[in-house]
Q: What sequence folds into this?
């Protein structure tokens, strides 16, 4: 089994896709209401609330997540923080080294979803990721 994507349902697809394109990589638009931001290991699918009617009306609603963090391993979290200055709407935690050896930057996307950019910095953390 492989996790291939995480889908975010939003009220404003264009705004959210533009944010992830700036923060991560360009998106591939499949329809006006659905786009994918693909990395080598996983894809963030972004869809409108209307796309959820195919799965069951009301199954998900935009800007309503309070339990999931999207995490991206990056080469240098401090450089990413500098690069995204002026783009990030709400920084929850500036880059700091965590006790488990990752240097992390925690922020919210325009819908309020938590995003963590991290860089393994300790020997143990680097080994966990084969670095």
A:
């Amino acid at each position: 089994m492989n996790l291939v994507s995480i889908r975010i349902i939003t009220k404003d697809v264009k705004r959210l896709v533009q944010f992830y394109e700036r923060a991560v990589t360009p998106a591939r638009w499949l329809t006006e209401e659905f786009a994918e931001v693909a990395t080598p290991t996983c894809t963030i699918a972004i869809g409108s609330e209307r796309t959820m009617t195919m799965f069951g009306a009301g199954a998900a609603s935009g800007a309503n997540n309070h339990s999931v963090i999207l995490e991206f391993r990056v080469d240098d979290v401090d450089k990413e923080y500098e690069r995204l200055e002026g783009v990030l709407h709400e920084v929850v935690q500036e880059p700091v080294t965590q006790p488990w050896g990752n240097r992390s930057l925690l922020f919210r996307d325009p819908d309020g979803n938590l995003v963590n950019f991290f860089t393994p910095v300790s020997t143990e953390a680097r080994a966990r990721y084969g670095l």
The mean pLDDT is 95.
